[in-house]
Amino acid sequence: MSKVVLSYSGGLDTSVCIPILREHYQYDEIVTVTVDVGQPESDLKKAEARAGKLSDKHYTVDAKNEFVEKYLFPLIKANGNYEGYTLGQAIARPLIAKKVLEIAEREHVSAIAHGCTGKGNDQLRFEAVFRASKYKIHAPMRELNLTRSEEIEYALEHDLDVPITFEKPYSVDENLWSRSIEGGRLEDPSCIPPEDIYKWTTAPTKMQGKLLLSLDFAKGIPVALDGAQVSGLQLIRKLNEVAGKFGVGRTDLIEDRVLGLKAREIYEHPAATVILTAHQELEALVLTRLERRFKAQVEAAWAELIYQGLLDEPLTAALDAFINKTQERVTGSATLLLHKGTATAVARSSPKALYSEALVSFNDKSLDQRDAEGFSKYHGFQSRAYNKFVKD
Fold first, then answer.
1. One of 110, 133, 171, 349 is an active-site residue; which one?
2. Catalytic residue among 9, 50, 55, 122
3. Which residue, 82, 76, 60, is CA-closest to 7?
4. Same domain, 117 and 162
5. Residue 20 is part of which domain span?
6. CATH assignment at residue 322
7. Is 36 a catalytic residue?
8. Residues 7, 13, 148, 180: which is the catalytic one?
9. What percentage of residues in the chain have a pLDDT greater than 90?
10. What's the average model confidence in pLDDT over 113-140?
11. 42: annotated active-site residue
12. pLDDT, tens digit, for every residue of 41-67?
């Protein structure tokens, strides 16, 4: 018997893949795998129910804690951000792919399949992992050149219970760190998104209150919320709930995909916004100017690698080594004000702070101001000389 394992989300693309793998690829047995990286419990149950009807065998793999500790914590240290996107889906794909490979080994399949299209980034993120294995790879959506409308028609013809319609053909992907919404009329960059596409965040204009919260970090990792020690998983879930109520974490952007296409992407990421803002404020307090300047370049390179799904690229490990070195001193607390869609730092403290209140204060003489006169004489010297020649 021919057997294939399918990375299964429970959505339109992957649900349509199951009968296609039977009809067009002639597989006798299809094993589906859903990897739990923080999707809603209801979505996981629906995926299991659909898989129970459509596939021959199904696995749900709990990878939430691994996702937080081995993927999101390094992202936080790196201030992970690609063109305004906090990389939630991008960094999850390699983990999902590795878990699918584990099931493929267990089930002794001959091939692996995924539901990615040929226009997006996820095909590359999954296959960067899959192609290092011995298995044949199938991408039915890409290989059959199917449109979203054709998929919906196919689902209706095969009586597939999928959470998408011609009226609301949105593609939604959700995990602990980020929720993405794309497709349908959102593909028109001039379209103002309807409010009903948002699930995690209240419209900023509707939230009148304010909230102060503090985050404690230890070596670059968030460890406490408002003084209470919590696990990374608990912290992210709590902040998604709390910050989302204040409209924090909405992003609507034109994104440059790996293939070169520009795409309109909409994300919700309340916890990510709060944590990354707090982390950067703490870094400003403890890292030197040169460290911060160089780290910004490292972060840009790191984010692009993660966006492309290249977690196993040697350069990623090298960049991680530098980032981890800087995080040895990123310990302390940052206080943020949440108000009408914004998360603004209003206080920060650290035992490793390079800040000296005595030296910077206008009311202290620890640093003799007169010593700065010599420095000021040379500051801008070449500019003055150049401008003198121009005028002459």
1. 171
2. 122
3. 60
4. yes
5. 3-174
6. 3.90.1260.10
7. no
8. 13
9. 88
10. 97
11. no
12. 999 999 999 999 999 999 999 999 999
- Per-residue pLDDT tens for 225-238? 999 999 999 999 99
Half-sphere exposure of 116 (CA within 13 A, CB side): 19
Q: Which of 93, 125, 148, 348 is catalytic?
A: 93
Residue pLDDT, tens place only, 136-181: 999 999 999 999 899 999 998 998 888 666 667 788 999 999 999 9
Average pLDDT over residues 261-273: 97
256 assigned to active site: no
Say whether both 63 and 102 belong to one domain. Answer: yes
Task: Give the total number of structural domains in the chain.
Answer: 2
